[in-house]
Amino acid sequence: MNEEHMMRTRNKPEVLAPAGNLRGLKTAVDYGADAVYCGGKAFGMRSAPRNLSLEDFEEGSRYAHERGARVYVTCNVLPRNAEVEDLKEYLGQLKDTGVDALIVTDIGVMMAARRIAPNLEIHISTQAGVTNYLAANALYELGAKRVVLAREMDLQAVRDIRANIPEDMDIECFVHGAMCMAFSGRCLFSNYLTGRDGNHGECAQPCRWKYSIVEEKRPGRYFPIEQTQDGAYLFNSQDMNMLEHLDDLIDAGATSLKIEGRSKSAYYIAAMTNAYKSAVNEYMVQRGFEDEDGTPLAPFHDRVHRTAPGESPRVGEAAIESATPAPDPVDLPQWLREEPYKVAHRDYSTGFYYPEHPVTQNTDRSHYFREWLVVGETLGWSPEEGGRLTIMSRNKIEAGQLVEFVLPGRAPYAYTVPGDGFRDEHGMWVREINNPAHVFSMPCPEPIPVNAAMRSRTKQATMKAE
């Protein structure tokens, strides 16, 4: 480790958002993401055709860089022999698109990327299952800039790894979204049941399916494993939600905070990116690194607090760091704590970060809760007539309905739809909006930015498949 590496300091924790297409990438950047990770048309762990093309990466990288954000590309499949030459060609194409890093699992892919695209950082995917500082240091010596830790790690393990790796090596940790029942996502379940390889981005998610027992001599009679009439969902893991515990994770040494969800909607990306970015800003202010306007007050470092309250350092270099009193918890405003419940989600947990409260399964259902619904998307705002908003409708909107607009860098704007004033795309007055995917306008005094999601609480919580 050279002196330059030892002296490196960080500006603030990175909020890393997902994107499944170019629009998602731009949405993530608009709502505060410091970096966006996305897959190309090949060699990523999400094989949906809507992934980004090389031209998308070029445009997306320009868009992100102009706004101070970065773009990471997933190349984290475990390739077969027949795919190696195509993969090498793809790496050569990516190096000139302007992206900043490659996320890889396979060590051969990693070394090929170093030769073919030396201008790109190498990030080691969670599929590599890094669980200790020995592995992290070995990968660093091979050229890795970052390790995405296995999701099965607890906070003390994160502290110990941070204390025993080079200062300029990043630690990326998952903070939000769906979790996999297999270790670090390495699963053959889908391959066995459907022939779709989860290690090639084609997982059919059979762990979310409903299962019952059938006794050999009584075919056609299905016995639920749990005592419910609908059977049981054996491997249906809860979702992760670490929003209210980001202070613990950052204090433990996490450099990058990763939101899961490359197959999610632009609304999900906007809402969760905005929530986690706002939470990080609260952390920086309440820890004294920045003032309310974001002006730096003290250099940020990711070794704020290496031990949990009442604990002593345990491993390697961690043992020579003096134990310090636990800092005060970061207090998040109520609107921010509510944001994760305004997107479709399963029951939440804090993953494996707290051994006393580990993630479990929902064995009675696999659907998502949905308490809020996107009813529109803004197309433009005009100051005429005291303010008029043009929207693309998604669901029913009627007079007297309370809606919220998801706005970057701030709490949502709540607004009661006025009793009259809707106009359709032809300028005709209408009482309510019943037609999805149609253009309407309505009075609104607040200048709402383009592409902001307009949402409303459902009359009763619903369950939806995803």
TrEMBL record:
Alphabetized UniProt keyword annotations: Hydrolase, Protease
Designated name of the protein: Protease or peptidase
Highest taxon listed in the record's lineage: Bacteria
Record has Protease as a keyword: yes
InterPro entries, sorted: Peptidase_U32, Peptidase_U32_C, RNA/ubiquinone_mod_enzymes
Family: Belongs to the peptidase U32 family.
Biological process (GO), any one: proteolysis
Pfam families named in the record: Peptidase_U32, Peptidase_U32_C
MF GO annotations: peptidase activity
All copies of domain Peptidase family U32 C-terminal, residue ranges: 370-455
